[in-house]
Amino acid sequence: MSLYHPLNEQEAIAIAKSLPGFFDAHAELACREIGDGNLNLVFHITDPESGTSLIMKQALPYAKVVGESWPLSLDRARIESEALRKQEELAPGLVPKVYHYDGDLALTIMEDLSDHVIMRRGLMDGSRYPEFAAHISTFLANTLFYTSDLGLNQQEKKRLSGRFINPDLCKITEDLIFDDPYTESSNNNYEASIADCAAALREDNALHLEVARLRAKFLTQGQALLHGDLHTGSVFVTPGSTKAIDPEFAYFGPMGYDIGAVIANLLLNYAGHEHWSADERERAAHRAYLLDTVTSVWTLFESKFRALWDAHCVDRLFRQTRGYQDAYMQDLLRDTAGYAGCKMVRRIVGLAHVADIDAIPDATARERAQRMALRIGTDLIKNGRQVGTIGQVLQAVQEGV
Ligand code: SR1
Ligand code: MG
C-alpha cells in the first residue's frame, strides 16, 4: 500500500519533530505552506524559540499550475534530492543542503534559505548581485564538466545518467519550450495585443528549422547532468551568496541549455525594465548591469571550464587533439545562444510566464516588454549558430531592443 499523500501543515510539523538532532521534542513549531511555484508543496517550518528552521518540499502527483489533469511522476523528488547532493559535491556551497529524503512521501527536507531572496524578485526591485556571475559560472563549470565525458569516467557517466532518466519533466520542456510556441496549442497563453507576434512565430520556417535543431539536441545529446530549469526563480541570492534550487528537471542533456537559461532570464529582466525602473538613467544603468552580467557569466564560465579541461580531462583524444577544445567551446556558445532564445520566447507566448514581464501593471509598457523579449529571443534562435563571441550574442540583444 502506498504511504504517499499530500501533507498538511500538522503532518509536516510531526515529521520535522521526528528528525533526529533538529528540534526539541517539546518545541512549538510554526509551519506555513509557501509554495508559489508550478509543481510542488513547500513547507517552511521554524522553532521561534531557537530560531532553527528548515524547508520541506513535497512533490504532488500532478502539475499544480494546471491541476490533476496533468499527472507527473513523484520520482522527480528523488531526482531533485540526488541532483542537489551531486551538485553540493561538485560545487560546494552553491545549493541548499539536503538533510533528509523520504521516497514514500516524495519529500525532501533541506536548508532554509529565508535570509536570501529569489533573484527574479531582487532584479525586479533593481538590486544588483556582484558575486552572482562568479558563483553561477563556478556552479555551471563544475557541475557540467564533472558530469560530462570530459571530466567523468565514461562508464561511470553512463551509470550516473541512469539515475536521472526524467521522462515526465523532460516532456514538459519538450512541449512547452520546443513545440507549443510554434504551433496552435491549448497550452499557449498570450495577450490579444501580441497575437500578431504569436502568429509570426507559427509561420516562420527559418525559425522552426533552428528550433528543430535545438529540440533534437535536447532530446538526444546526453552531454552532462543539467540542473534543467535554471531560471532566476530557481536561484536564491544575497549580495554575497548564490544558491541554485529546484533541480527537479535534472537529466543528462546539452550543456548550453543550462547556461542559456541563466542568460535568458537576465534578458527577460532586461526587457521587463521597460517598467521596473521609472527613471531613465536608472533603467539604463540596470540594463548595463544585466548585459555586463551576461558577459561575465559566459566569460567566467568559459575560463573555468577550459581550466578544468586542461587540468582534469579524462579522455586522451579530447585532451590531446589540438583545436578540439576551441571547437567544443564554440559549439557550446552557439547552443547557449539558441537555448537562451527558446527560453525567452516560451515565457511570452507559452504556458508559464515570468513576473519580470507579467507583473508590469501598465498594458502598454507590458506589451513593449513582451515584443522586445520576442525580438531578442527570435534573433538569438535564428542567429545563434553564427555567433563566435559573447559580444556577438549581445549584438542580437541590441538589435532586438
Ligand atoms: C508545468 S511546469 C511549467 C514550468 O515551470 C517550471 O519552472 C519549468 O520552467 C516549467 O517549464
Ligand atoms: Mg521550479
UniProtKB/TrEMBL annotation:
Residues 31-270 form the Aminoglycoside phosphotransferase domain. Its EC number is 2.7.1.100. Coiled coil: none annotated. Keywords: Amino-acid biosynthesis, ATP-binding, Kinase, Methionine biosynthesis, Nucleotide-binding, Transferase. Substrate binds at residues 229, 346. It catalyses: 5-(methylsulfanyl)-D-ribose + ATP = 5-(methylsulfanyl)-alpha-D-ribose 1-phosphate + ADP + H(+). Pathway: Amino-acid biosynthesis; L-methionine biosynthesis via salvage pathway; S-methyl-5-thio-alpha-D-ribose 1-phosphate from S-methyl-5'-thioadenosine (hydrolase route): step 2/2. ATP binds at residues 40, 57, 111-113, 246-248. InterPro entries: Aminoglycoside_PTrfase (IPR002575), Kinase-like_dom_sf (IPR011009), Methylthioribose_kinase (IPR009212). GO terms for biological process: L-methionine salvage from methylthioadenosine. One of its GO terms (molecular function) is ATP binding. It is an enzyme of class 2 (transferase). Belongs to the methylthioribose kinase family. Catalyzes the phosphorylation of methylthioribose into methylthioribose-1-phosphate. Homodimer. This is Methylthioribose kinase. It comes from Paenibacillus sabuli. The lineage of its organism: Bacteria, Bacillati, Bacillota, Bacilli, Bacillales. The gene is mtnK.
